[in-house]
Amino acid sequence: MKNVALTWQRNGQEFDYKNFDRTHTIDYEGGIRVLACSTTKYFGDDRLLNPDQALVGALSSCFMLTLLALASLKGYVVDSYQDNASGVLEKNEKGHFWVSNITIRPEVVFAEKSGPDQKALVSLFEKAHQGCFIANSIKTELSIAPIII
Fold first, then answer.
1. Global confidence as pTM
2. What is the rounded distance in angstroms from the CA atom of residue 7 to the CA atom of residue 115?
3. Are 60 and 66 in contact (CB under 8 A)?
4. Lowest mean pLDDT: which of 65-74, 91-100, 140-149?
5. What is the predicted pLDDT for the residue at 147?
6. In degrees, to the nearest 5, what angle opens at C-alpha 82 toward C-alphas 140 and 144?
7. Is the dihedral of CA 59, 61, 64, 70 positive or negative?
8. Where are the domains of the chain?
């Protein structure tokens, strides 16, 4: 696993709940830097990556990479993959916010005559879910709503 470095600084600005700057950088090994923040609902900036979006994106990416690997091992040729994932942020029974559900909507296009039949496709999605280490690492419910082409 690669390391992640997060950096935030006050930079002399006010530090009260509604006014402190929530913008920070996340540096990933390999040179990728992401500017992140909370959402405007929490006095941040919706134009920047926020933690719940990052979680949904990580799960979507992990599921796709797992599915592509499984498809290739079965001899299926995938031409394209698209997902329109979403997450639900709400309060739990203790009143704490959590991402209670993530829905991924994989749209997989297989090369002509190489794709799985309906039963094999359902199995492929189930195995991708079981094999996705992000899905295995969280208590959030994962819903899979594939778009079959």
1. 0.89
2. 45
3. no
4. 140-149
5. 80
6. 35
7. negative
8. 4-42, 51-148
- Spatial distance between the Cα atoms of 27 and 57, rounded to a whole number of angstroms: 16
Q: Round to whole Å and give the CA distance between 45 and 20.
A: 12
Residue 146's pLDDT is what? 85
> pLDDT-based confidence at 83, cuts 50/70/90?
very high
Query: Which residue is it, tokens 């499984």?
Result: 70
Q: How many Cα atoms occupy the beta-carbon half-sphere of 51 within 13 Å?
A: 11
Judge whether 44 and 31 are in contact, CB under 8 Å: no
What are the helix (H) ranges across 2-81? 51-74
pLDDT of residue 149: 64
CA distance 125 to 146: 8
Residues paired with 78 in a beta bridge: 110
Supply the CATH classification number for the domain 51-148.
Answer: 3.30.300.20
Which of 72, 70, 77 lies closest to 124 in space, CA to CA?
Answer: 70
Residue whose structure tokens are 């950096």: 7
